[in-house]
Amino acid sequence: MSKHEMKMYQSTEDYLEAILMIKQEKGYCRSIDIAKRLDFKKSSVSIAISKLTHEGYVIKEEDGMLELTEEGSRLANDILERHNFFLNWLRSLGVEEEQAYDDACRMEHAMCNDTFHKIVNYVRGRNDGNS
Question: Which residue intervals define the domain HTH dtxR-type in the entry (predicted)?
């Protein structure tokens, strides 16, 4: 994990993940879609999108559509992979759906890539310490 990724805030990760998920579901993403998904005010989302654009993760098209940059897409996919892994793992342990979702959301942000991959390997029965 790079220093830049270590400094990334959970809210930044949540926005990138939301953009990716909305685009997968609808084929497009606008600020209002993010506001609805995350239950945030549109003004708060606009500020965050400006920040993400400045940091090179998002491109805001003239028509208001949002696109992830290559780096934004890479990070969003990593975050979504973590979320899905933890959600599925918690479900397999018998954790109630809503609790599993909430816990997966917290867990996806809580560790570096190396630790995440070690957990994945362990859970998959390959506790050899290699990624």
Answer: 8-69
Q: What is the largest CA-CA distance in the chain?
A: 50
Contact 108, 82 (CB under 8 A): yes
Quick: pLDDT tens for 28-78.
999 999 999 999 999 999 999 999 999 999 999 999 999 999 999 999 999
The amino acid that residue 64 corresponds to is G
C-beta separation of 16 from 76 below 8 A: yes
Q: Domain of 117?
A: 76-121
> Per-residue pLDDT tens for 8-17?
588 899 999 9
Domain total of the chain: 2
Check residue 5 and give its pLDDT.
45
48 neighbors 15 (Cβ within 8 angstroms): yes
pTM as predicted: 0.82
Asked whether residue 117 falls in the same domain as residue 83, the answer is yes
Same domain for 63 and 95, yes or no, is no
The three-point CA angle 29-10-40 to 5° equals 50
